Amino acid sequence: MKEDFDFENARVVQVIRERACRKVLLQFPEGLKRRAPEVASALSSLTDATIIISGDQCFGACDIPATDADLIVQYGHLPIPCLETPKSVMYIQARSSADPIPVLEAVLPRLSGTVGLLTTAQHIHFLVGMADFLGSKGLKVLIGKGESRLYADGQVLGCNASCARAVADKVDAFLFVGTGDFHPLAVSLATSKPVFAADPMTLEVRDMSEQRDRLLRQRHAAIERARSAKRIGIIISSKIGQRRERAAVAVVGMLESAGFTAILTEMDLITPAKLDTIGLDAWVSTACPRLAIDDSASFRTPVLTVPEAEILAGKRAWENYILDEI
Ligand code: SF4
User: Fold this and answer.
1) Best of 28, 30, 58, 59 to mutate for ligand 1, by most ligand atoms within 8 A of CB?
2) Of 53, 57, 74, 179, which cross-links 27 as Cys (Cβ 3.0–4.6 Å)?
């Protein structure tokens, strides 16, 4: 099966014309970047605007670049409702064409009772159809309503699994339909329920429990390594949707009370080289919480999330480990 995405060129062209935009910046997540040239060419041929592809990584709807473009078109993400996003940003969720029914057939034998159904921006238009299909097979399906960081019911972000938490005590398991482990891992860390990840393209079904256990072992080791640190850097993100300055200041106070020297730093893209150059013993990131978790192997010094810093400071028991959610 070949997967295609709806880049909604006609809608983008309409907005460019209505707003008489002269310069338009296109942002694509890494997984869709290969499609950027064809989208840019199509928009160029249909409008008089200068169309520019952003070559920088775009991690999420939280990630709006500073630019003098009249319009930023961000593909692959839904808006974050609680974020004061500039009017010049337009989100195109890039709906996938991948039919989810075959992978639902594949996952059926592993499900029973009540299932919490979750997905991402690319597949959310299939959510009701997926729930109907699972319901027709005798399952009770719940679609949770999330907090104001989430645009749609049943949506999950790497930093917010509130749609799952909303129904966690009523379900036997969660079913995530989509690509990759990034989102189902958030659900697995945010709830204690079994999580099955079903990929509509590869038809692969994975139980996330092993990954969750491995990741928790790694996180425990990172916290233990940070115990020998004297000076700890607290990272504030300059990205508007990842900025948690108040949380960062609170972490400083907490770590200072626990006997560490805590130093605030601010940056946009967080890289191992930048951290090495500043040269502190450990870090706490109040930026995208997945950076500390998913990129841990690339950092020479431990990088902790906010709840992990609470464990380090003795304010939270390891048994109460939680996903750092924004
Ligand atoms: S903070 Fe991280 S996980 Fe959350 S939307 Fe942004 S990039 Fe995704």
Assistant:
1) 59
2) 74
